[in-house]
Amino acid sequence: MKAVLVFVLMGLVLGTMGMGQVLKIAFDAADLKTLDPHYAAATMDRAVVDMIFNGLVRYKPGDITVLEPDLALSWEVSEDGLVWTFHLRPGVMVHPFAEMPEGYELTSEDVVFSLEKAADKNRSAYAGEYVGMTFEAVDRYTVKIVLPQAISASLLLPKFANYSGGFIVPKKAYEALGPKFATNPVGTGPFMFKEYVPTQKVVLIRNERYFRGAPKLAGVEVWYMPDVTARLSAVITGEVHVIEGVREQAWVEAVKRYPDLTVDVFGPGETEVLHINMTKPPFTDLRVRQAVAYAIDRSELIAAIGPDIAEPLCAAVPPYLAGGMTCEEVAQKGLLYEVDREKAKALLAEAGYPEGFEISAYITERASYRKPFENIQAQLAKVGIKLNITVVDHSSFHTLIRQDVNPLVHYEAWRPSADAFLTRFYHSASRVVVGTKPDTNFSHVTSVDGLIEAARYELDPEKQIELWKEAQIKLLEEVASYPLYILKFVFARTKKLDYGYELKSSLALYPPVNELTTLK
Amino acid sequence: MSRYVLRRVLVAIPTLIAVYTLVFLFIRVAPGDPAVAALGDYASAEAVQALRERMGLTAPLPVQYIRTLLGYFRGDLGCSLITNLPISAQIAAALPHTLELTFAGVLIGTLLGIPLGILTAVKRNRFPDYIGRMLALGGISIPAFYLGILLILAFAVRLRWFPVMGAGEFSEPFKNLRHLALPALTLGIIMVSFVSRMTRSCFLNVLREDYVRTARAKGLAERIVVLTHALRNALIPVVAVLGTQTAVLIGDSVMTEVVFSRPGLGKLMVQAMLQRDYIALQSLILIYAALVVFINLLTDLSYGIVDPRIRYD
After folding, report:
1. What is the secondary structure of A413-448 as a DSSP string?
2. Both A470 and A407 in a single domain?
3. Per the domain annotation, does A208 fall within a domain?
4. Rg (Cα) of chain A, in Å, rounded?
5. Using CA atoms, how far apart are residues A315 and A474, in angstroms rounded to an integer?
6. Is A125 close to B47, i.e. CB distance below 8 A?
7. What is the overall mean pLDDT for chain B?
């Protein structure tokens, strides 16, 4: 009788805690791409790998401004800043896989293997982050990383965090699974891979031996549902618990009408920037670029999207990153380019275009790019600039803009540091087509290389921030681009779901699910 | 008949090669890069180039063309450029769901479309005819994805009779049927529209024939005239429409699978297109083409069942 009572009570307690429940998340995607964390780039893939893998350090769940220990319990740096030593947490178990059904303990050998993989361009998309670094297993729980040149902690630690190349891939599992690893990942995180049903879902189950304690959920199913009406219908009927929403105020307001649902609008948000190609006439003339800046009204763009979801961006690096600039700082420098269409027309006339001019540009069919670009088209028309738009699919857009066909490129991006933002978008090596490492410098600006490189190797955090800001001021003076706004992320969920932390910002661009997440 | 079937199969081979050639060329002319699509915009140009090489996209086009074609002759559809999974395994998992959906749509279309067509023909220019024609026109005009959304909102969200998403397991027939109901109805309504309009039109022609007038003059009941004398003769064009529409329905299943989040060839195809997964897309379109060829063959063979006078020499 006692045993029965204990059983019933345990059932009640576990039921209250949400134990045994499977959380279902639906993403705006038709299928996964890869679950190899060193290649995963899309939100729906990052969402899965984030639950399966760990980094040496991790961003505090729900708050990307704080880094805390993950697989490494502590770390130190040599006086010359060239050698970083990480001390691993003992007893971390790798998930079981066919060849090792009991799993095994993760050691420095795995960490070194994983970092070498992340640094290998044939096995990682993020190899560029680790150029020149060497990795060494000092003992079972100690890893030494030697840098070719000292960099600050704010630039180094994100490379070893739970993001992109920083996810630790267990050596024996990767070697045993080979190419299958991309659709059958094995890690150390709170959830373990169970099944992948192509074009439908990925099923994860609880890792009972997770080093922070067994998750409260029994598992997680990640569903691929590209149709937003279907996603919303599914969360209304309770068939899924969380959905990727639409980043528009109207959608948020519509979902708020359902009493059982809540909408999370969270950061860090992606930067939306209009890059101006300084090599294509008439944008070779600074006055024309200034005219474009004065013709555009940020507040109009933000009003169209919604004040909860978009906020002004006034410089190349968003203010939530170290080295980013607020609109107030930019205003103090007199570089805000507040809308003044008469001034824009005067600048155009001065540059020899009193009647304006006509240009053509491609834009992707994705609403978050297309709609604001159409808005910009209407705003530019008010000063006589006729912008003809050709809408193409997203993949074509990315190919075309990298072929340097657009005089104006509207680009949506998230990068983890000021260095990444500035290097990828404004270093001369990153110029599309002609750069030595062609990337996403669509404006072809070449004047801030020195500042970017000086900041990268500056160890004094304050000086580093000043250098980054100096580069941004120069970019604003040259109007290499016109920063528009920051677009936040929108997810809807049932009120029964508790993430287990306060969701302010998420690096993986989705609300992370961890061992503390519960379904009431 | 076996010689006829063999001849048709042999004729299908160059058709399929032509389809493959066109698809191979067109998708490579279109802008977009599978390596960029796979890695996202955060990956460096070096990583993109390394992946492009690993994907075999740096080989000359004729080499890529021949390599894939030879693979097809060996029965090897290749591996997805994005997930690296064998495409044949993905198709094997998805095809039953697409066939199930298409078959259910055709079944609904046939079982409701033919009686509705007969009814509207027999009651020509009367109330049932007006209603039937209006419904058929509506069904033809409405896109499958929109109809699917309407059905979801009515029967899944408001009434909660059916699930919104997924396909259910074949091992659980009842659950599977509940998942199938709304997507099958979506395709079925479209099919009903085409079949009923064709049946009505053919029936009206047949009802004017001398042998029908003779049957009526002999004093046969109208039910016997319609179902015994007129129906069989009116069916041949209807069977032709069924064949063509089944092929069209497989195409419509693409959006239906997306809206209802069902696994299937359609969803695979959408993903392959968005990701510029050349290998997967080529193979999938080839499978679609093969299905259309097969359905056309079945349609031609079924003429002989409907009308025994037809011979396959």
Report:
1. E--SSHHHHHHHHH-GGGBTTTSSS--SB-S---TT
2. yes
3. yes
4. 24
5. 10
6. yes
7. 88
A260 inside domain? no
Q: In this structure, what token pair is assigned to residue B190?
A: 């479209």
Taking CA atoms, A209 is separated from A142, A212, A480, B96, in Å, by 22, 8, 52, 38
Domain that holds residue A49: 19-225+496-519
Q: How far is CA A233 from CA A28, A43, B174, B181, in A?
A: 14, 21, 22, 16
How confident is residue A35, by pLDDT bands cut at 50, 70 and 90? very high
What residues 37-56 of chain B have any CB closer than 8 A to a CB of chain A? 37-47, 50-51, 54
User: What mean pLDDT do residues B25-41 have?
Assistant: 83
| Chain A nearest-CA residue for B48 | A125
Would you say the pTM of this structure is higher than 0.90? Answer: no
Distance CA B258, CA B261 (A): 5
Q: Are residues A328 and A452 in the same domain?
A: yes
Question: What is the reported pLDDT for A15?
Answer: 44
Q: For residues A504 and B141, give the distance between their C-alpha atoms in angstroms, rounded to a whole number.
A: 46
CA distance B271 to A30: 6
Phi and psi at residue B7, to the nearest 5° = -60, -45
Counts for chain B of helices (H) and strands (E), in that order: 13, 0
Hunting for tokens 């009927």 — which residue is that? A237
Rounded Cα distance, B18 and B12, in Å? 10
Going by pLDDT thresholds of 50, 70 and 90, the confidence category of residue A278 is very high
B54, A124 contact by CB (below 8 A) = no
Average pLDDT over residues B27-37: 83
Beta strands at A219-224 and A201-206: parallel, antiparallel or unpaired: antiparallel
**Chosen from B48, B164, B170 to mutate, greatest number of chain A CBs within 10 A:** B164
> Could you tell me the CATH number of the domain that includes residue A287?
3.10.105.10
Residues A210-238 have a mean pLDDT of: 95
Question: Is residue A295, in this structure, part of any structural domain at all?
Answer: yes
Nearest to A234 among B31, B153, B164 (CB): B164
Whether A194 and A337 share a structural domain: no
Give the C-alpha separation, A511 to A491, whole Å.
8
Task: Compute the average pLDDT of residues A459-465.
Answer: 94
Question: Whose CA is closest to A345, among A385, A375, A378?
Answer: A385
Q: What is the mean pLDDT of chain A?
A: 93
Same structural domain, A463 and A381 = yes
List CB contacts (< 8 A) between A230 and chain B.
Answer: 149, 152, 164-165, 259-261
Question: B185, B188, B209: which is closest to B121 by C-alpha?
Answer: B209
Q: How many domains does chain A have?
A: 2
Q: Which residues of A touch B262 (CB under 8 A)?
A: 200
